[in-house]
Amino acid sequence: MLHFARRVAIQQVRQIDRWIEQEEAREAEEQRRRDRAHAERRWKLEPQHGDRPALLHRGGCNTFETQVGYIGREEARIALAEPDIEPCGVCQPQTGLHGR
Ligand SMILES: [Zn+2]
Q: Is the pLDDT at 98 greater than 80, yes or no?
């Protein structure tokens, strides 16, 4: 009888471990989603390389990973007005930046 009770308890622990795993995976996915959503509302500046001008990107653009963090809407607008900073052709950071 005790051996049976032990097997049941072990199965229950394994089931709980699976639930914990699923819950942790769900939380990690939710965190990634929040990070992406946050980045999408921000912009980032890629410094000039050689004869390539500095580029303004949307926060979520995959062509460039920022080392220094994101900038807000107002700084992005100012950056775009700079003659030596160009908008990225892939993520089109100027879309939605004018107005509002
Ligand atoms: Zn870009």
A: no
